[in-house]
Design goal:
Helices cover about 35% and strands about 25% of the residues. The chain has about 170 residues and is an alpha/beta fold.
């Protein structure tokens, strides 16, 4: 599918929100994965870099041209806009009360926004507090975190699988 056909194609009702992501390579990787699952788009917030940028393109491989994106100076503004537009905002973060990803059930017909946070600090606390829910990826090793683009891919795949009827 070419870029124009992609833009016209039906999208999965999911927006990924990047909350102050430092690495342009991580941003590009999320663009590429969002393209693969044909998501509605990305909200790039705070210090998260926006296209055009050579380092984003290096990992996005052109997905920054196919996937719709919007910039917000403040992630909380993006969250409020999404909630006003009827999205269920889900922070991907290890916090008290978070749901394990393997127990979360996405409901077909609902719209979701997945918030992923800074590589060091995670999703800002005020953003977690404003979110409708929090999801945590089960981890069984000695490390208790994953690269943000890896986390994004895991969560996008699971939500896509559920919403497209693979659950």
């Amino acid at each position: 599918m070419d870029v124009e056909t992609y833009r016209q194609a039906d999208k999965l009702p999911v927006i990924v929100v990047l909350d102050n992501i430092r690495s342009l390579h991580n941003v590009g990787s999320v663009f590429r994965t969002a393209d693969a699952f044909r998501l509605e788009g990305l909200y790039l917030c705070g210090i998260t870099a926006c296209p055009p940028a050579a380092e984003i393109h290096k990992t996005a491989l052109g997905a920054e041209d196919s996937v719709a994106w919007t910039y917000f100076a403040d992630t909380l503004d993006a969250v409020h806009r999404l909630q006003e537009d009827g999205y269920e905002v889900v922070a991907v973060e290890q916090v008290e009360g978070s749901l394990q990803l393997d127990t979360f059930r996405a409901v077909p017909g609902r719209r979701y926004a997945l918030v992923l946070g800074n590589e060091v600090k995670g999703v800002r606390q005020d953003v977690v507090d404003a979110a409708d829910a929090a999801l945590e990826i089960p981890q069984y090793g000695t490390k208790h975190s994953l690269n943000v683009s890896v986390s994004a891919g895991i969560v996008m795949w699971e939500i896509e699988r559920q919403l497209r009827g693979g659950a």
